Amino acid sequence: MKIYLAGPDVFLPDALEIGRQKIEICRRHGLIGLYPLDNAVDRAAAGASLKIFRTNEAMMDQADTIIANLTPFRGPGADAGTAYELGYMAARGNFCLGYSNDPALYTDRARRFTKVKARDGRFVDAEGLTVEDFGHNDNLMMIHALDLYGAPLVLPREKPADIWHDLTVFELCVGMAAARLTSAS
Predict the structure, then answer these.
(1) Quick one: which H or E segment has residue 168?
(2) CB within 8 A of 147, min separation 6: which ones?
(3) How far apart are CA 6 and CA 64, in angstroms?
(4) CA-to-CA distance for 2 and 179, rounded, in angstroms?
(5) How many CA atoms lie within 13 A of 148 on its CB side?
(6) What pLDDT does residue 41 have?
(7) For residue 173, what are the contacts with CB-CB under 8 A and spacing of at least 6?
(8) How do beta strands 95-99 and 2-6 pair?
(9) CB 98 within 8 Å of CB 154
(10) What's the CA gap between 90 and 181, in Å, rounded?
(11) Backbone angles phi, psi at 123, to 5 degrees
(12) Are 76 and 113 in contact (CB under 8 A)?
């Protein structure tokens, strides 16, 4: 089973090392991890962003499963690119797994970035825009993509000290994918 390893991990200073660690965890479980930075793209070349997009989609097309790191990135919610990748894989009917190293509810995380108050039976932010409040850890589209096409979002009991390098809940997802492979054979 090939697993596409989505997430903002690719932006970390040690992104290649994190990718190697994730691939090794997959290997230990009898799975093949596909990490986006394994695609060799010259970022300085003309058309580099489109080439990255196409090579990442080609990698997803090879994958049976996605494990999406939905740990909040540069705001209260998941990385936009990772959200796209999760949607892409769900639309293809692939098995979808996701995790977040921040177990806080979305509304609580939104409060870290803007003033949130109750108004007319809903929560609104400093601009008067509704803050989604369904008791989820992220946007309902990602939560239900996981529920309907895989398994519920995997969360730690407590936020780890290093949300970008702690791979505990990632490994739980890999174990779930391995169990699915075992039960299918």
Answers:
(1) helix 168-184
(2) none
(3) 13
(4) 14
(5) 13
(6) 80
(7) 67, 97, 98, 99, 154
(8) unpaired
(9) yes
(10) 18
(11) -95, 140
(12) yes
